[in-house]
Amino acid sequence: MKIYSYLDAGRxxxxxxxxxxxxxxxxxxxxxxxPTPDAMSKAIIELIQNADVRxxxxxxxxxxxxxxxxLSAFRAGVDRLYDYIAANCLK
Length: 91
Known about the structure:
mainly alpha, about 90 residues, two-stranded parallel sheet, 2 strands
């Protein structure tokens, strides 16, 4: 659940490319690497050395959080679910 807060923080995210992370993250909003110490350390160095990449990842991550993982997006999803149930299940 912390990943949503990380996205909203607008900072570059470094994560492993395991399904637990890629359910929410992709390479547009996070730097995804294999779950190895070597891959993680290289990625940390890459992010430290490239401010443009950090800024770009953070900006896109924040936009994703604001569009898909905020309270209004949750409410819209619940409304769509209720509309579906009303239209298809309450006959």
